[in-house]
Design a protein that fits this description.
37% of the residues lie in helices and 22% in strands. It has 246 residues and is an alpha/beta fold. It has one domain: Rossmann fold (3-Layer(aba) Sandwich). It comes from Paenibacillus sambharensis.
């Protein structure tokens, strides 16, 4: 992919009101693609850690360049911001805000976007993306709302024991319909988190094994890399091509 910094794309900011979240609202940042036309319809990506995905993952810049070069079809990207102080509480399945966040995502956030932007509403045209805990919560959302979400991008997913338990208990009929793209860095084998030190390589391998045992066939990539945005940023183009080929 060549660098085309002149490519025109639009970033807008929105705030979605919420009856489910304690703070009563959540900030969003949204990329409208080059050549955006409101009479057309577009696939949509919902990113956990929205601010980081835009600033450090450079997903809007990378996607806009790829769209302009004909590598992927035009799409809309919605970054969902998170307060880092309550991130684990929202993203981890045993967190005290997790159920509210998952319900907010499916019942408030997505309808808010669908009412305002020409995004396609069928599961095959919707991608939920996240890194670390954002990757695991994206999978949990898809498992909880299978009629709406099927595509999941998990960059170094934080599949803590509570997440693995969710996968073990998941209905195989739901799991086998998932379209998953999972990456992990081989140097993520002793990463320090707010819950202790974890071997993310082993956790992702176990998550993959559970998912495959239930009929899923994830695109699974292991390569050299650490638990950093510098690693994940490089995975974005391949994932976008896999989910949204032109």
């Amino acid at each position: 992919m060549t660098n085309t910094p002149h490519v025109k794309r639009t970033i807008i900011k929105e705030t979605v009101p919420s009856q489910l979240l304690a703070e009563g609202e959540r900030n969003l940042r949204i990329m409208l693609p080059p050549g955006y036309n409101e009479v057309l319809s577009y696939p949509v990506i919902y990113c956990q850690d929205g601010e980081d995905f835009f600033n450090f993952g450079r997903i809007a810049t990378q996607a806009a360049n790829m769209i302009a070069e004909g590598e992927i079809e035009p799409l809309i990207i919605v970054g969902v911001d998170v307060d880092k102080k309550v991130r684990t509480a929202e993203y981890a399945p045993d967190g005290e805000r997790h159920e509210s966040y998952v319900q907010f995502f499916a019942e408030e956030l997505v309808p808010f976007i669908e009412a305002r932007l020409p995004v396609r509403q069928e599961p095959e045209h919707i991608l939920i993306a996240g890194e670390s805990l954002g990757g695991s919560v994206s999978l949990h959302i898809a498992l909880k709302h299978p009629a709406k979400f099927r595509n999941v991008l998990s960059l170094s997913g934080a599949y803590y024991p509570a997440s693995l338990e969710v996968l073990e208990q998941a209905d195989s009929r739901i799991v086998q319909n998932l379209k998953l793209y999972m990456t992990i860095g081989l140097q993520e084998n002793a990463f320090e988190t707010d819950r202790g030190i974890f071997d993310f390589v082993a956790l992702n391998r176990e998550a993959r094994q559970i998912l495959e045992s239930k009929g899923a066939r994830p695109e699974y990539i292991e390569r050299d890399g650490k638990h950093l945005w510098g690693f994940w940023q490089k995975d974005v183009p391949g994932a976008l091509k896999w989910f949204f080929p032109e």
